[in-house]
Backbone:
């Protein structure tokens, strides 16, 4: 005879609003167990009674068969006293003081919902807002916690009898699916065009307008897109003109993986990213040309449809591929509120496909790439935010404000580090407003008392985020140097606080300990005990401050003036032009000149020498161009980049470039030799320093490590010396990851 035992099980992670309780309910019933399950502030609590072997079977399947949208971090199992229950039930939620349950990111529509969407017999046939507990919107519709329909933007729609029946039945996929709705009770899409608004046949009409070469504003999950036919150069160029977007590549949406494969070489790792529930934009090597979509780039940014509406549009004959780009004018945040979109996009879109369900907050598409060391997140937003990316030691709430470029914010509660979506560049007033709104939103959602929190900001005194920090009314504020935060962000992802590492932080700009502009730094240390700067790029001059980042030629002047016997760089083949002359005069005068060790500016300088002599029209453009040039070359010998006395000397590297260009070597070969030289010089420095310090783990971060060619050249050299290389995978290596590193140093660092 079997004994009745009891267990108390607590599950933490993303386990609310993802169909976890009905899953537990079914699992308990299948194993003939009694008890109950409920949502509590930290996750899900389960009480189980039954025979020991069936309890064990339940626990095994709990992790193995969890719903696709769930993300379990811990399962805590304890013996409990049996109450002699004779059924299994789902009990009401238990609310606590401070909600720490994780908010699920928005998820792509699932396969089962898609089958229903195209099944004429299904009550939600062709309903553009179909969803279930495995899929659909979350973060973009939540207005407060706990996650209930009344605290979402679906609060205004009453479920009809059929939807309510699904919602209350634990055996359906829509049990407590908060946004559940159907054509008869839920929100609809309306087509606004020529002063008219109609809900009739909107998908077919929109698809036809797109085929006819019109530009449509389409409301999605976290904002509006501008959509058009990517195969028609004149339409794409009209979109560029209206958006004031000169050269930055547009993202594409394709019907399915087969369509993606016709446009680009899709590796298994790319396919896994494309079809993941986050459905990010994935950067992939392109096989065909679509004029105007990605000028001068060897890649396309491709995503698959992720809302039911996207699938309906393709089924109705929308162009494949379509350009799907954030609806805004260049550098503004994406439009997400209907009234604002209708005004701001009036001159941009020929028609509007407006969904009636409001968007609670702006969440842009994420951008990722399958890199040498694993996935690289370049922009972290829809599908990932506001997921927890790290578990820090417990302590008071921490609000880390990040950097001013590519801003994102981290909030730490009970050790859970939640990272917000990409917010933007805070120098733009609209983004700065979004920054403040996101902070208010976070603190309200998680009921954080400002007087009890610790605020962390960058060391840059002029950053907008730095100046805002004292206004938050926090218990204390801490500042963290930019490049240490980059290194700490990698270690935070892994929970490695004590590990001694050698950290290589390479990026464009960050305020250094000595008040100069850093960006080519090598540290030794740990999060817990601090990072000491041990080496850096040889100092150059940043001519004219921030403007140098927009003009590679101007950046070049501050490096090239240290070279001997330069040829006339205004002449062929260099043609550095008037800006070279002017910047040289500024440099000679010494005004508005700053010392810098920025590796990003060194890449700009190299791009200028290889032929990129115009201003950039988006951040990082010159370095991306240089990488593209080099990518088409077979292996070359690198230019020398010697490491002596803690300094990487760029002079021989640039001397080699100048000399080769003057004698007519191709820009592609020169670019390849530059990359190979940088990788070899860095490897020499890293191998030497780590051997001296007895360290075997190398951490790389900073925007320069978005350069996949550099990573691909550097990593084998380090591995050949038995070194382990760690990089970012959950937050971006660019400044989008800074806030996580700031939070980690505030929680575990020497001052903590
Ligand atoms: Zn679904
Ligand atoms: Fe940075």
Residues:
């Amino acid at each position: 005879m079997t004994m009745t035992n009891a267990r108390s099980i607590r599950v933490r992670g993303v386990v609310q609003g993802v169909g976890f309780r009905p899953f537990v309910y079914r699992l308990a019933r299948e194993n003939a167990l009694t008890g109950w399950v409920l949502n509590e502030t930290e996750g899900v609590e389960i009480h189980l009674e039954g025979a020991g072997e069936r309890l064990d079977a339940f626990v095994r399947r709990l992790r193995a068969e969890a719903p696709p949208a769930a993300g379990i971090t811990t399962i805590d199992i304890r013996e409990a006293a049996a109450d002699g229950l004779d059924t299994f039930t789902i009990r009401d939620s238990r609310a606590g003081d401070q909600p720490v349950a994780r908010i699920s990111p928005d998820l792509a529509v699932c396969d089962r919902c898609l089958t229903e969407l195209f099944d004429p017999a299904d009550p939600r046939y062709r309903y553009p807002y179909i969803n279930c507990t495995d899929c659909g919107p979350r973060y973009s519709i939540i207005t407060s916690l706990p996650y209930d329909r009344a605290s979402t933007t679906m609060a205004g729609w009453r479920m009809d009898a059929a939807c309510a029946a699904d919602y209350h039945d634990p055996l359906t996929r829509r049990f407590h699916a908060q946004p559940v709705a159907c054509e008869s009770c839920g929100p609809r899409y309306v087509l606004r065009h020529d002063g008219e608004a109609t809900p009739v046949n909107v998908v077919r009409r929109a698809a036809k307008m797109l085929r006819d070469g019109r530009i449509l504003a389409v409301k999605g999950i976290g904002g509006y897109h501008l959509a058009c036919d990517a195969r028609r150069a004149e339409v794409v160029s009209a979109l560029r003109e209206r958006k004031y977007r000169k050269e930055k590549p547009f993202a594409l949406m394709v019907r399915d993986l087969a369509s993606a494969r016709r446009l680009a070489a899709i590796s298994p790792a790319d396919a896994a990213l494309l079809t993941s529930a986050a459905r990010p934009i994935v950067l992939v090597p392109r096989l065909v040309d679509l004029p105007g979509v990605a000028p001068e780039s060897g890649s396309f940014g491709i995503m698959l449809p992720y809302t039911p509406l996207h699938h309906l549009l393709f089924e109705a004959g929308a162009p494949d591929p379509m350009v799907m780009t954030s609806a805004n004018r260049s550098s503004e945040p994406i439009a997400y509120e209907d009234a604002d979109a209708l005004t701001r996009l009036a001159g941009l879109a020929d028609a509007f496909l407006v969904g009636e369900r409001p968007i609670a907050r702006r969440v842009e598409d994420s951008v990722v790439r399958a890199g040498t060391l694993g996935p690289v997140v370049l922009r972290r937003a829809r599908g990932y935010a506001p997921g927890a990316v790290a578990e820090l030691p417990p302590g008071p709430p921490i609000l880390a404000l990040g950097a001013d470029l590519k801003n994102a914010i981290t909030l730490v509660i009970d050790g859970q580090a939640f990272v917000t979506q990409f917010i933007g560049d805070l120098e733009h007033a609209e983004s700065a407003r979004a920054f403040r709104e996101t902070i208010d939103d976070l603190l309200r959602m998680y009921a954080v008392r400002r007087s009890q929190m610790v605020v962390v900001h960058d060391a840059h005194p002029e950053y907008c985020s730095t100046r805002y920090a004292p206004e938050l009314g926090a218990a204390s504020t801490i500042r963290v140097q930019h490049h240490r935060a980059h290194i700490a962000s990698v270690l935070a992802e892994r929970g490695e606080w004590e590990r001694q590492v050698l950290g290589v932080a390479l990026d464009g700009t960050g305020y250094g300990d000595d008040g100069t502009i850093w960006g080519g730094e090598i540290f030794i240390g740990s999060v817990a005990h601090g990072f000491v700067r041990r080496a850096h790029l040889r100092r150059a001059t940043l001519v004219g401050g921030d403007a140098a980042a927009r003009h590679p030629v101007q950046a070049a002047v501050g490096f090239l003036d240290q070279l001997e016997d330069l040829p006339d760089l205004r002449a062929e083949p260099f043609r550095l032009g008037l800006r070279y002359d002017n910047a040289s005069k500024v440099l000679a005068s010494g005004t508005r000149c700053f010392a810098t060790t920025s590796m990003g500016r060194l890449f700009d300088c190299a791009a200028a020498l290889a032929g990129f002599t115009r201003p950039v029209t988006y951040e990082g453009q010159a370095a991306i161009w240089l990488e593209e040039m080099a990518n088409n070359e077979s292996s070359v010998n690198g230019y020398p980049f010697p490491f002596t006395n803690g300094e990487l000397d760029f002079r021989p590297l640039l001397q080699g470039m100048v000399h080769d260009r003057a004698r007519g070597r191709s820009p592609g070969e020169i670019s390849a030799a530059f990359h190979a030289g940088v990788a070899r010089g860095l490897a020499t420095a890293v191998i030497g320093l780590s051997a001296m310090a007895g360290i075997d783990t190398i951490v790389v971060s900073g925007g320069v490590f978005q350069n996949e060619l550099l990573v691909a050249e550097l990593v084998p050299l380090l591995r050949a010396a038995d070194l382990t290389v760690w990089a970012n995978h959950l937050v971006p290596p660019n400044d989008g990851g800074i806030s996580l590193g700031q939070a980690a140093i505030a929680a575990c660092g020497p001052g903590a």
